Amino acid sequence: MSHSVPVQTVATTPFEGQRPGTSGLRKKVKVFAQSHYLENFVQALFDSLDGFSGGTLVVGGDGRYHNRTAVQVILKMAAANGFGRVKVGRGGILSTPAVSCVIRKHKAFGGIVLSASHNPGGPDEDFGIKYNVSAGGPAPEKVTEAVYARTQTISGYRIVEAPDVDLDRLGETTLGDMVVEVIDPVADYAELMEQLFDMDAIRALFAGGFRLCFDAMHAVTGPYAREILEGRLGAAPGTVINGTPLEDFGGGHPDPNLVHAHDLVEVMEGADAPDMGAASDGDGDRNMILGRGIYVTPSDSLAILTANAHLAPGYARGVAGVARSMPTSRAADRVAEKLGIPAFETPTGWKFFGTLLDAGKVTLCGEESFGTGSDHVREKDGLWAVLLWLNVVAKRGESIADIVRGHWAEYGRTYYSRHDYEGIDSDGADRLMAHLRATVPGLVGQTVAGREVVLGDDFAYTDPVDGSTAAKQGIRIGFADGSRIVYRLSGTGTAGATLRVYIERYEPDAARHDLDPQEALADLIAAAGSVADIAGFTGREAPTVIT
Ligand code: G16
């Protein structure tokens, strides 16, 4: 039954700066809350898409401040623009991987995720919006660039005049001719996880006394982790901490690293530490894995999961290939070489994995920025990574520390660290990058940090599937011994610029696998600072965050 509701066309003028970054449009809440700001972007998005009339849109977010307001606007605009159905998570909640899962399972036209990921939330903090295509993954650059172009010429948007939809009651209602279906945000996702993992083996692991602490960081994964870990797998009540999504994430950064996941780090450093610690981020796509007495770098996690994925039923047939973003360490490449499977190196941004996954060229992908995922969806997936680790631990019957050390002994250890200089002046950051672009190619053949430089360039990528290209993706300095220094500016910040410096060194000798990474990399870290004159260009003597 359709109810006619008036469709309004509201006159508007363009806003500057609505260009999506590494992962959608991220701005302060105060920017998004200006009248017409979100509406302009959403109309520009709908104007850039073809053929959705009568189709299904999936909508959900990480529950941060402004989420509910934005969901109501999007529902009314989707109705006015001709969508046939919107599936929206109860309370406006859907994790990023769950959006991808729901789009794929229900063959939706696309989806909108409301999140600024690991950035803080609240009235003075960050908000974000990103669009995912029908394959379930982030829109490729040709789409985001078309949206941006449209934001610069927009003169009106369409919205229905109707009362707000009750987001807290499951089931269907209508908004004009469009059906709004409020869905359980966890159900489809949990069902997919059951198909991928050996749930009995993990259940037996927990029944045998294995203890996990999962820090949901007051963000979106709380309900997912409680249902799957405590509900379906029998982990002890209290396994999930900070499990209720809060609009301001309890005042913290919902970023699963050793700096921000301090509640978890405290538990893992305590006298009676559990066997495994894990955390996820604001929108549920990132993960951090800890064992008792050991931190697994995201780069190592990708390598170890690639070597062990066959232990999970969903990957029993093996891994077709593995992809990592350029700044991610090359640990996974060594596994791929041994398995005789291809390894791909892409620019930073999950969207670059989409074509490889769609073409079946890779099964697993990962990034140094705490992202790991597979072809089960088209986003990185925090809880999925935790479940795969649990599956591997259950099948191998070894501790996380033993699995990691055993991996290093077999493949060598890649010492790795990322140094972030957050909130630096944008001009200084641009000048630093220009300086590197001008000088780094000339380093080839010279000696830096006692090593011969064999590569000095600005990473450019040609997608092997669709031939699309991306330039200026990060300055690389490669050394003859396999060490690397990489510099890039973050594409996800909302204030000033963030310089990221990625440093790695390969150590084949197992007798030297017990160093502190900062010590193991000390000479390369010093060289990274002097080659780029970081102090001179940024005025900073030390990084703000080291991971
Ligand atoms: C996003 C992207 C990732 C990227 C990360 C950091 O993750 O999806 O591919 O690695 O940002 O990007 P940058 O170094 O440009 O800040 P998320 O979890 O923030 O959506």
Automatic annotation (TrEMBL):
InterPro entries: A-D-PHexomutase_a/b/a-I (IPR005844), A-D-PHexomutase_a/b/a-I/II/III (IPR016055), A-D-PHexomutase_a/b/a-II (IPR005845), A-D-PHexomutase_a/b/a-III (IPR005846), A-D-PHexomutase_C_sf (IPR036900), A-D-PHexomutase_CS (IPR016066), Alpha-D-phosphohexomutase_SF (IPR005841), PGM (IPR045244). Keywords: Isomerase, Magnesium, Metal-binding, Phosphoprotein. GO terms for cellular component: cytosol. CDD domains: PGM1. It catalyses: alpha-D-glucose 1-phosphate = alpha-D-glucose 6-phosphate. GO terms for biological process: carbohydrate metabolic process. Its cofactor is Mg(2+). Belongs to the phosphohexose mutase family. NCBIfam families: PRK07564.1-1. This is phosphoglucomutase (alpha-D-glucose-1,6-bisphosphate-dependent). It comes from Caenispirillum bisanense.
